[in-house]
Design goal:
Helix 6 runs antiparallel to helix 16 (476-483) and helix 7 runs antiparallel to helix 8 (291-317). This protein is α+β, with helices and mostly antiparallel strands and 492 residues long. It has 17 helices and 13 strands. It folds into 2 domains: 4-106, no CATH class; 172-234 and 276-490, Cytochrome-c3 Hydrogenase, chain B, CATH 1.10.645. It is globular. The strands form 4 sheets. It has a 4-stranded antiparallel beta sheet, with helices on one face. It has a 4-stranded antiparallel beta sheet with strand order 2-11-12-13. Strands 8-9-10 form a 3-stranded antiparallel beta sheet.
Length: 492
């Protein structure tokens, strides 16, 4: 079977996406992901009318720097052979499709609800006199969102963890169709995961502009790239503080927490919101980056970097910290490949998976981004990746500011355009957690017919469940924080 190939943010007429019978479709998608360079960026169902659904699979090829698109029309109530039986990377996608349609994937090893939380949820159970179960959540202290964690333990050792999410029933994808104003959709994108407002905002803007045939100016791309890297610095810094807090290294917790504040306060001065909401909008840069802001940011980053580097050197060599981080919460490279892990979690397990390098967008091609990887896959590796990525982002921020200062300021936003009819675009971005994917499909009038969202947490919750096996249950908080996954990004 042939597949259509597109670049990141390259629109395609839906009629040009090959449609095959399911057997050929299944064979092709399984063959594609057998290559280490390929992973599933998105896989979803469209209503095809007359009691049928169209399955659409988008597989990112990191070596070819493009995305393979293929589809199959099947009966809405059909029973289909499961792709997961051949490749684990399809596991959550097929569960989602089954939950949203009446399709059944025969041979799927774990066909359970993905986003609904029934009272009789079929948790995995193990028998044994010395085994016991520990349930945590779904209600948590503080501002943590709802999720249930069911541990099976032998004494203090975790043998199995099952994570049940889906309590929020947010309906975000449907809201993209209901809300017709562009600004409403931009605000929705920023709200997919509140700590990734810039990341999701950029991917939405790129997707919509691509459908409308609008090319952004270089200045706008530079500003969006800068906002993305500042978001990475701020969230990584806060998470490093939380990791230190979970191992009782209070100096690290206090200093990293303090260092996050000036970075997010700068975002407040730039766009009026500390989390970057409002900073990115399609067709326009609502808050232009001025030379005064550039001088402000360089001063902020200079003071930040001095203390960050000093503290991080302590963290990487302090024996009591290393004793808690080394060989704790290991996600092996084989496990990361099997579940299709993305982002920082994948790179800590020696997978060079980073959209900024493999499917460059904005100004990442100009930056010539080189992903940071570690190979042990433990909490320490994820901590080291965060530290190195902050250092890398500091360098990028300075280069971006210098480039912006050399360009004239822009005041007039581009006029919004109408999206192309009967078209589809796949937009990939690298948020601080990892790969974000938005797929926009339009109907014959150029209106959104489907808006499919994938936050990196969709892939990586299973990574957390695997990483805690064999660890003491008291190590779960530090394992959990080393991933820092999103409930809201999952519960769409």
């Amino acid at each position: 079977m042939k597949n259509a190939r597109v670049k990141n943010n390259e629109p395609i007429a839906t009629e040009k996406i090959p449609v095959a019978d399911y057997e050929a479709f299944l064979e092709e998608i399984v063959a594609l992901v057998s290559s280490p360079a390929c992973h599933v960026a998105s896989y979803f169902a469209l209503d095809a009318g007359d009691g049928a659904v169209k399955l659409v699979c988008c597989i990112a090829d990191d070596d070819a720097h493009d995305i393979a698109l293929l589809s199959s029309e099947v009966e809405k109530n059909g029973v289909l052979p499961s792709a997961t039986a051949h490749a684990g990377v399809f596991e959550r996608f097929e569960r989602e499709i089954a939950e949203n349609t009446d399709l059944v994937f025969d041979g799927h090893p774990w066909m359970k609800p993905l986003r609904t939380a029934p009272d009789d949820y079929p948790f995995y159970h193990m028998e044994g006199e010395e085994l016991h179960e520990v349930g945590v959540g779904p209600i948590h202290a503080g501002v943590i969102e709802p999720g249930h964690f069911r541990f099976v333990c032998n004494g203090e050792k975790v043998l199995h963890l099952e994570i049940m999410l889906g309590y929020q029933h947010r309906g975000v994808e449907d809201l993209f169709l209901e809300k017709r104003r562009l600004n409403q959709r931009a605000v929705l994108a920023e709200s997919i995961a509140g700590d990734t407002a810039v990341g999701h905002g950029v991917v939405f803007a790129n997707a919509w502009e691509a459908l409308c045939g609008h090319g952004t100016s270089r200045r706008c791309r530079l500003e969006r790239t800068l906002a993305s890297e500042l978001e990475r610095i701020a969230i990584h810094t806060g998470d490093l503080g939380a990791i230190c807090g979970d191992v009782a290294y209070q100096l690290g917790s206090a200093v990293y927490g303090r260092l996050r504040t000036p970075v997010i306060n700068f975002m407040q001065r730039w766009c009026g919101n500390r989390l970057g909401k409002g900073c990115v909008r399609p067709f326009a840069q609502p808050f232009p980056f001025t030379k005064e802001l550039g001088a402000d940011l360089l001063g902020t980053l200079g003071a930040y970097e001095r203390d960050f580097l000093e503290l991080s050197a302590h963290v990487k060599h302090f024996p009591s910290v290393l004793a808690r981080l080394e060989r704790t919460g290991v996600l092996t490279q084989a496990q990361a490949e099997e579940i299709g892990a993305v982002g920082m979690a994948a790179r800590a397990s020696n997978l060079r998976r980073d959209v900024r390098a493999s499917h460059p967008y904005l100004e990442y091609g100009w930056l010539d981004h080189n992903p940071v990887t570690k190979h042990h896959g433990d909490v320490l590796s994820r901590t080291q990746v965060r530290i190195s990525e902050v250092e890398q982002s500091l360098e990028y921020a300075r280069r971006l500011v210098a480039e912006l200062e050399a360009l004239p300021e822009e005041n007039a936003p581009a006029a919004p355009r109408r999206a192309a009819a009967n078209s589809m675009v796949v937009s990939l971005g690298e948020g601080w957690r990892g790969e974000i994917c938005h797929v926009a499909v339009t109907d014959g009038r150029g209106e959104l017919a489907r808006y499919k969202i994938k936050d990196p947490s969709f892939h990586n919750w299973m990574a957390l469940a695997l990483a805690v096996r064999g660890n003491e249950i008291s190590d779960f908080p530090i394992c959990n924080k080393s991933f820092n996954l999103s409930y809201s990004g999952h519960d769409l």
